[in-house]
Amino acid sequence: MPTAVPSNTIRTAAATPTAPRKVAVVGVALSDCGRVDEATPHALHAQAARRALADSGLGRDVIDGIASAGLGTLAPVEVAEYLGLKPRWVDSTSVGGATWEVMAAHAADAIAAGRANAVLLVYGSTARADIKARRRTSNLSFGARGPLQFEVPYGHSLIAKYAMAARRHMHEYGTTLEQLASVAVQARANAATNPDAMFRDPITVDEVLEGPMIADPFTKLHCCIRSDGGCAVLLAAEEYVQDCAAAPVWVLGAGEHVSHTTMSEWDDFTVSPAAVSGRLAFERAGVRPADIDIAEIYDAFTYMTLVTLEDLGFCAKGEGGAFVEKGRLLRDGELPTNTDGGGLSAQHPGMRGLFLLVEAVRQLRGAAGEGQVRRPDGSLPELAVASGTGGWFCSSGTVVLGRG
């Protein structure tokens, strides 16, 4: 990976700091996204990493940790070699879409404890291009061994599991199709000013409801798009901040939780693992859901947004439908959510959780361009939460970020 800027002097962290170091996100970037037919996944990793490093203003020599998943047999080893890095700290945690929030928590802990100075989280995928070029086919399940053997033979696909959960919420709390559809409508409205979004034209609730059925109750527009793309996030110890090109965004608290893999072991289809990861993240950050200015939430399906908002504490259990239908998720709403358009409209190249962190940081920095969120008094947002979900509500990672 070419050096973006001259290397800074490497600071050697104490093996055991006298006090935990503060940790900041100092660089974020996307690779080319959307329809990327000529690049390889490795190339997207490198492109995103170079851009994030340039965004930080630091030299590549500060990076002594790398976290990566989803590519190759030994993901962080292969990616590190491709990028020309030889890290002394690595993480290959793979828990689906929640991977990146969990990795960010692990990286922040390592930096705070002095086991690393600067950790690069990087991802890239050509999920869309591979299918178009017939390099791979769509899959109905993640496999049929272990616990999954009891579900897969009956056609219990990933989307069917989300659809079952959505139907249970509708039955239990009276949530309507129109309320779920409004999540997609607001995501598309937020994407309208995002030049990196794959779909930007407005849609209506009726258009969502009238689309082709994928898995009852989800029509096509209830489901995330399939795109190519990648991104990278660089976290560093507080002593590097003075050399950075942009204002730091601090990691204030994080939590993680795994719930189940087989549906028979899921205690309640209307409760996601964010109910635990979110509570832990807010407690560790010393803030409340009411303090949050922006929410970036994993949205492979509209129901994910609705139930995660409930489980993070932005509304009571069962009130998600009423909460989302009033335009609260729009950039100028009460709780701007998925301000880039999310996986429903912007990009979704697979494990999208890292994109949530990139957008949260850009918003807190005031670097979101036409899509920038402002508080009612015109000031920049102060606090954001990014909450990723993996599998079929199997795992969750939640990170609270703060400006200043």
UniProtKB/TrEMBL annotation:
It comes from Streptomyces atriruber. It comes from the Bacteria. Residues 255-403 form the Thiolase C-terminal domain. This is Acetyl-CoA acetyltransferase. CDD domains: SCP-x_thiolase.
